[in-house]
Amino acid sequence: MEQRCPIRLDTTGSRIHAEADGLRAQGPATRVELPGGVLAWSLNSYATIKKVLTDPRVTKSARNHWPAFINGEIPPDWEMISWIAMDNMVTSYGRDHVRLRRLVGKAFTPRRTELIRPRVVELTGELLDRMAARAPGEVVDLRAEFAYPLPARLVADLIGMSEEARVETAKAIDMMVDTTVSPQQAQQILQDWRAAMTELIAEKRRNPGEDITSDLIAARDVDGTRLTEAELTDTIFAILGAGSETTINFFDNAITALLTHPEQLQLVRTGAANWDDVIDETLRVESPLAHLPLRYAVEDIDLDGVTIPAGDPILVNYAAVGRDPALHADAPGEFDVTRADKEHLSFGHGPHYCLGAGVARLVATVGLSSLFDRFPEMALAVDPDELTPLPTFIMNGHRSLPVRLSAPVPSLS
After folding, report:
1. InterPro entries per the record (predicted)?
2. Got the DSSP string for 366-396?
């Protein structure tokens, strides 16, 4: 097969969908260059990604299956070091993955998810009340005022983190997904979030509460073989990061889509579509997670004539899945809440399917419905083309979301 030079991924995130289309056209797996000159295989088609996500020959553990990392060829200040240095259920393999997932999964059962609903409603109301105090017609950054704090504060509550600590840790999370950071910044990011998690764990050991961190500490301290200190630290961070960052960008994308397609919003208001339709269509056409670092081939893997050698890293592009013409032949890049087939893989697939998917759907439904009920006439304050993408090929969202608020409908609470 023809050998092509690796394609350097756009670290600024300015052309996520166009880049995915180009990579998909090159074949089932395409060599790309990551920051620091690290090479990986990028997957951009639905069929290939769904197959790989359930392939037992593919792992997420760099410490077990990435020779370059094991042999010290990946420096400790690599720009994406936080994504591979973690030791938790996201990066574990085999029995360790099953063990860690079982422990964390107890916090995200359907029953416990429903118990979270009152807090979601309360947080949503607080944020909307704050915006309602603004003068009608005032421009606000809806990402900063609503899309960001709602999921971020909820997940901080779930792990028992104070608001002050959350604000500080958020800086490290935001920098971690930024693929334009320097090596020095990358090393500092890793140190900062681990220090924040260590401090949280120490506080919860002194003052345990009804939260996920306290539950995981108890599981470890009862039987030290079940959860190492590194696993405890990195698992709590994974919950904080995954539970907030993706949902923040989901809100950003969903609100943008509805404000730029008012006829679609009207379908929801008339009952011709519902919020589940909005959620799944947003996840299909604008997955909040684009490329997710990293997976590795345990052995040589053949993908329709392209061989990924054992030990090579793999980059899955979730933002490319729902726009694959082979999956959605009818205008795959068009936002249409009435689309019968909204297939996507934005919550993952297989062993690493998102444990918090139920919580994310709950927050999305309550947040979107309440926002558009309270401000039915709000509108984008800039042309959609003026919205600036986040500087990353990992996440898919905007730096800000300027919206002109309408006169609020009085709260019923």
Report:
1. Cyt_P450, Cyt_P450_B, Cyt_P450_CS, Cyt_P450_sf
2. HHHHHHHHH-TT-EESS-GGGPPBPS-SSB-
